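On clarity, I found the account of how folds are encoded harder to follow than it need be. Since the whole study asks how a given chain folds, the encoding of that fold should be made plain. For illustration, here is how one protein appears when written out as sequence plus structure tokens:
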Amino acid sequence: MINVDVGEEIDVSVVSPVFGCADCLPELVEEISEAFDGYQYIEIILVCDRSPDRSWQVIRELADRDSRIVGLLLAKNVGQHHAVTAGLDSASGRISVVLDCDLQADPQDAVTLVKVIEGGEHIAIAESASTGQSSKRRIGERWLYYRLINLLDVSSSPQRHGTHSFFALSETARRAVCSYRERLRQLSVILRDVGFDPVYVPIKLRPRRDGPSSYSTRDRLNLAFEGLLLYSSRVLKYLIPVSFVLFFATVIIAAVFMTRYLWGGPSLPGWFSTVQLLLFVSSLQLLSLGVTGLYLHSVLVELRRRPGYVIAETTRVELQP
């Protein structure tokens, strides 16, 4: 049984969202403890995102043996980004580190990120040239997604994109990130919007220890869809010039056909071209309405102000007054 003095200030809070990695957790905690052996007071916050395996039972067992471990069980599965938010909201350390539970991220690299924050920076993001066991298709999808994000981003210069599930924050940056309470949540967007200049630290990811990623192709597509449409207004702005181009193209086509008719040129049936043009215009109108409707729906979701997560159970012992 490892006990810590809860009255002392926590140096580092390590936050890890947990889903489908029950067998990895004991080794994860052991590696974190060894990596941060030079720090006297740390806490390890394991957020169980309603994992269907034995993750919560394992977390409770680990917390019973080590008081530095704080377990949070969410009432329902809310996804990685909200689970990380729950952990950051509960963090009490001067520096907070976020890393996945699948042991791809080496806790020794987490110490490197912490050292960067101790040097006066506010955000340190791990940047990996490799992606572990990711296929070429997934690497290509990631590259294309971030290129599109740069295209649609409101900033004037391209942004670098690191491993946004592995980063460290100062207390100031943690409070700033936690102040973003939008329901449609992507940490990669929030980290770049906070305002601090992040420091990118090169790392090398390790192979996953507990099977394939829990993110399906559908999950990745949903995240990409939210990132591309709901975090930028440029799609709507691009539709405006497209509509003008279509309008002038329609005028030119009408002028050409009218000129041919007045000068006695060969008559053209025109049914196919007319129907094709009408279908094209109609599809563009439906696209514009659909995109606008998505923006309105995202506004409705935010106006409801529903919580991003609900904590059903925790292993943390609250201090009595």
